[in-house]
Hints:
Helices cover 40% and strands 17% of the residues. By secondary structure, the chain is α/β, with parallel strands linked by helices.
Amino acid sequence: MRHAPFGPEGCHIGWTGTAGDGDGGAARVYLHGLGAASAVYHAHVAAVPALAGRRSLFVDLPGHGISDRPADFGYTLEDHADALACALDAAGVRGAEVVGHSMGGSVAIVLAVRRPELVSRLVLTEANLDPRPPLTAGSSMIAAYPEDAFVRGGGFEETLERVGPVWRATMRLTDPTALHRSACALVRGTRPTMREMLLGLDIPRTYLVGGRSGELPGRTELTAAGVAVRTVPGAGHNVMFDNAPGFAAAVAARP
Length: 255
């Protein structure tokens, strides 16, 4: 495990990783979604032959997994991106391929805009692109609670029951305040929006959608802007669990 300071004094963002075999390819940085952890969601995929050999970093965003969870931190998408930049600076990473799932994809977009030298390619797995998403068990329903009601009034426990065993396995390790503030940030979005930032980027961009997730809003606009949109068959939102070989092949494929 490695770590780097970020934000409030004494706080550290943590990651694990592999050194790679020196094939010269860009490092891959894997980012988890809301209430998740990067190694849990991606380590099994990074070991697939199509992806193995590259230096790989599994970074846990503030409030999640092995990273610190300060109470006096905003947990906005910009805050997460700045903390991630601290990790990549400390790791000596430049021009990475950033593979971000859900909220992690949103953070990756913000990072690419704020620190373009750190990112050479984006692979976004069902990333949040727009504010005010439909009400689901995820960010929108978490954000519907007032913060105190979520953190101390039973909302966190209700959410753990609602999301089921797979998501609960990592969500229960997430700080409730960080989870709520991160969810609110996703619902609020960014200005310009994540979608607008993605459309304006001039780097290779791939957007992965699970075949069971339905039609991707704005797909035509994304492809017209040069974003390679790929559907992974037999998968829902957690593409890397539902079809790991298909996910690995889509990440390995060039736009």
